[in-house]
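Q: I'm building a small set of examples for a reading group on sequence design. Run inverse folding on the following structure and report the sequence directly after it, with nothing in between.
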């Protein structure tokens, strides 16, 4: 789907991005993680040519993006930033319709797409569509920003710290919404975040950046189990690795025969959620929906792959 081929961006002697090559599969979610100044956002902007590389190039479905006019490329790529960037003097519906209007979509097609996306994002089209951005909550503005980026059915969605301004409760809901939407639409997503827990929860693969270079590019479970460098290990958090690994493990995979007291845990819960429930209930095992149970000892073993 997307190829980043020896991308570099230099500002004088500073190498903001230094010879980065990645292949991003169609329909996958890839998170770029790193500390401030590691080159995450610069790399993202190289993809849609908001800035031009010093060297290297990007391919989209095998096509070198340098062969496309920049405005045409950007209409094929959705872009979501932390402060949403909504036009304050336009309604929500018109904000979402921005790119489809530029592409010459019919009025009926635009209206249907706006309604579809607002509904998908749990926003009432009749109530929210006519409002202006200042009439929305932070969580609503964030969802409208995502809807606008998805409006023209882009081949790729770029997201630069999209949930950074949200409080923890809204952030968790926004992350769940994004994963649900991605499963529904199959959109390829490249997400920049400084939050390793967010990257683990949302992505199929994680690229860990440091000083403009990628130190490891792998699935979340591999990064947790086998950090490639001391920097990656520190970013994961040595004391948090076990719990984060449990967040990737379905509790059903740890089920064993036997009974347990109390309300059963949903079969699609994670091992981390099961461990939380065990601690909260003060018990040694939990019943699972559909039969069987999970024990504290099984969960603790699973946290040390």
């Amino acid at each position: 789907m997307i190829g980043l081929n020896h991308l570099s961006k230099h500002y004088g002697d500073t190498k903001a991005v230094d010879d980065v090559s990645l292949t991003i599969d169609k329909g996958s979610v890839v998170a770029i993680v790193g500390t401030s100044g590691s080159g995450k956002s610069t790399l993202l902007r190289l993809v849609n040519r908001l800035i031009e590389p010093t060297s290297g190039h990007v391919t989209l479905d095998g096509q070198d993006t340098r062969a496309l006019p920049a405005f045409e490329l950007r209409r094929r790529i959705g872009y979501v930033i932390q402060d949403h960037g909504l036009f304050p003097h336009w309604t929500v519906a018109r904000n979402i319709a921005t790119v489809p209007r530029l592409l010459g979509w019919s009025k009926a097609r635009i209206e249907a797409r706006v309604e579809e996306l607002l509904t998908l994002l749990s926003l009432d089209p009749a109530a929210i569509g006519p409002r202006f951005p200042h009439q929305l909550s932070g969580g609503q503005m964030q969802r409208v920003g995502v809807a606008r980026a998805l409006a023209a059915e882009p081949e790729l969605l770029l997201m630069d710290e999209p949930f950074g301004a949200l409080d923890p409760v809204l952030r968790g809901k926004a992350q769940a919404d994004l994963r649900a939407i991605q499963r529904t639409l199959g959109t390829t997503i490249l997400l920049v975040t400084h939050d390793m827990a967010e990257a683990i929860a949302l992505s199929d693969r994680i690229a860990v950046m440091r000083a403009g270079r990628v130190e490891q590019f792998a699935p979340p479970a591999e990064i947790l189990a086998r950090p490639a460098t001391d920097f990656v290990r520190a970013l994961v958090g040595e004391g948090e690795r076990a719990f984060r690994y449990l967040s990737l493990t379905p509790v059903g995979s740890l089920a064993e025969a036997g009974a347990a007291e109390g309300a059963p845990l949903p079969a699609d819960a994670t091992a981390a959620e099961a461990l939380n429930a065990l601690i909260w209930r003060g018990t040694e095992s939990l019943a699972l929906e559909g039969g069987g149970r999970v024990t504290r000892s099984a969960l603790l073993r699973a946290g040390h792959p």
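The longest strand covers residues 14-24.
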